[in-house]
Amino acid sequence: MRKKGNKATPGLEENGAVRKNWANRLRVALVFPNTYHVGMSNLGFQTVYALFNSYDHVVCERVFCPAYGAPESVESKRPLGAFDVIAFSLSFENDYPNILSMLHAGGIPLRSDNRDASHPLIIAGGVGCFMNPEPLAIFFDAFLLGEAEPILPKLVENLNPEKSRDELLESLAQNVPGAYVPRFYNPEYREDGAFSAMTPDPGHPSSIKRLFLENVDQAPAITNIYTEDTTFNNTCLVEVSRGCPHGCRFCTVGYVYRPVRFRSPETLSTCMDKGLEHTRKIGLMGAAVSDLPCLDQLCKYGEETGAVLSFSSFRANAMSQGLVKSLARGKVKTATLAPEAGSQRMRDVIKKNITEDNILDAAQILVEAGIPNLKLYFMVGLPTETQEDVDEIVALTKRIKHRFLKASQPTGRIGTIHISLNSFVPKPFTPFQWAAMDEVKVLKQKIRQVRNGLASVANVTVSADVPRWAFIQALIARGDRRVGEILELACKNQGNWPHTLKEAPINPDFYVTRQRHSEEILPWDFIDNGVRKEFLQKEYARALALENHSAK
Predict the structure, then answer these.
(1) Helix/strand/coil for 280
(2) What per-residue confidence (pLDDT) applies to 10?
(3) Fewer C-beta within 10 Å: the chain N or C terminus?
(4) What confidence category does residue 229 fall into, taking pLDDT thresholds of 50, 70 and 90?
(5) Residues with Cβ < 8 Å from 33, sequence gap 6 or more?
(6) Do residues 331 and 304 make contact, with C-beta atoms less than 8 angstroms apart?
(7) How confident is the model at residue 6, as a pLDDT?
(8) For the domain that residue 48 is a member of, what is the CATH number?
(9) pLDDT per residue over 494-528, tens digit each?
């Protein structure tokens, strides 16, 4: 690692951003491989930024993916190469190609093997890492598997600029729980191309345990920097929980963030008080906010203090009086529900655990509370899905519209129902990690089926993701180390994915549309996420057992 400079960091316009002199500091660039708008809307990114800067000897600056040109830090406009450590925050697979374009534009060799002592150490953390880091393994020096709070103290302690790169990586691997250094692990493959084993070098463990914060009250997560250029404009975000108790079979949150942990009412009310020093808008964040045991108590406290509460998510079968009242007080214009599937059979397959009556009742309650618009999330391409199941998305939407109109009549105004269609992508550490993904042409046909079915329905709009991008997401999500070569090729082709997929040295369909065998070794099996593979296999079998049940 390089010697440090003495240039002072200039002042900042944003309220709350950290100002530190660079002299005798460990210089960390915290990078979000998407735009400023997206990155600063991410509470996890803000939390890690604050954690790094809580150390006196560390100066951490933020870097985002630029529209053009080389990336530079927000705080001092320094290039990536000026930092000792470049720490990427990884949440979304479709952001991964930006990592390579940012490194390339910053003059940093893409592959870790091609970097030397003159280059920064490249590390990464975030949920993308502890789902499956392998597609990025040839580019990164180290990954941090788990939540930041229990990992960062040991990480910072072992980031010694005086050590050589080899000594530093050995120190991280041996002394930082949750640290995964790919150079010490060797993937093996069968003759048919399938992944077969991950063999560690002598002295390194065969599996790496994902770390989690046991007591979330010890480390409240709250907005540190307020800016208008985010999705949550001038809103204080407060994380109320980690994990989800429901275990929907398609969703990673219910598995990789186990056990479920809720913050106490005392901690959350203190966070709200802190946020109210800056803004009246408080956003409660979590995978299942409506499961928070003290939610009604928190809503009442919000009413007493004049806070305007918003909620990142809530379930159709958990519409508490306090939640609905808070939504109405905040003059929310659009509420979101996630039926995910149209038929009850499909909701049973994915273990959504809500009924059609729950969905219809929730829509009615929201409209009667004065919320004029609804947004509904559905997926196409789920395991065992039939054409009839896709038709049921149209039918359910029409039934919701009927209840929606009936509830709207007393108000004298009719809002809009917006359908958001997403292609199912099988993800690691879920019961559906073995499932084949639908081909792109099949997903396009299912999206057309829904669009056509709702085209003549007034006050209903439909948007859908791009199946080709969902295909790329699945390629990265379930890929092994060889997928890094495809990412490298995409960077060389300046993001031309159709050309890249045609040139790819490995057939992308092998990772995306191939059904995995239950006994197959998976590229991420070396990560101990606290969920037994046998349990996931049983959950998958239970889902498939519902295949022949008639749609309801």
Answers:
(1) coil
(2) 33
(3) C
(4) confident
(5) 65, 88, 90, 95, 96, 98, 99, 102
(6) no
(7) 34
(8) 3.40.50.280
(9) 999 999 999 999 999 999 999 999 999 999 999 99
| 461: enclosing H helix or E strand | strand 460-464
Instruction: Tell whether 398 is covered by a domain.
Output: yes
Same structural domain, 202 and 345: no
Single-letter code of the amino acid located at 18: V
Give a yes or no: residue 415 inside a domain.
Answer: yes
What tokens does 359 get?
């969905």
Residues 47 and 188 in one domain: yes
As a whole number of angstroms, the distance between CA 72 and CA 61 comes to 10
- The C-alpha angle with vertex 271 and arms to 298 and 275, in degrees rounded to 5, equals 105
Confidence of residue 549 (pLDDT cuts 50, 70, 90): low
Domain edge (last residue) among 188, 209, 230? 209
- Answer for the pair 453, 391: CB distance below 8 angstroms, yes or no: yes
Residue 236 lies in a domain: no
pLDDT at 1: 47
CATH number of the domain within which 473 lies? 3.30.750.200
pLDDT tens digit sequence for 466-475: 999 999 999 9
Spatial CA neighbour of 323 closest among 340, 339, 338, 336 = 336
Residue 146 belongs to what domain range?
26-209
Whole-number Å distance between alpha carbons of 480 and 467: 21
| Residue whose tokens read 């000897």 | 57
CA distance 110 to 67: 20
pLDDT (tens digit per residue) in 301-329? 999 999 999 998 789 998 888 888 898 88
Closest among 56, 62, 71 to 28, alpha carbons compared: 62
What's the token pair of residue 118?
A: 């003159």
Decide which of 209, 237, 271 is a domain's last residue: 209
Q: Are 25 and 204 in contact (CB under 8 A)?
A: no
Domain-located, residue 243: no
**Longest distance between any two alpha carbons in the chain, whole Å:** 73
Q: In degrees to the nearest 10, what's the CA dihedral of 197, 201, 203, 206? A: -10
The residues with which 464 forms a beta bridge, in sequence order, are 421
Beta strands 281-285 and 208-209: pairing type? unpaired
Integer Cα distance of 355 and 68 in angstroms: 48
Pick from 159, 149, 125: which is nearest to 27 by CA? 159
- Token pair of 295 as six digits: 């939610």
More confident position, 406 or 136: 136
Residue 107 has pLDDT above 70, yes or no: yes
Provide the domain count of the chain: 2
Q: Are 316 and 337 in contact (CB under 8 A)?
A: yes
Q: Secondary structure of the chain: what % helix, strand, coil (to 5)? A: 40, 20, 45
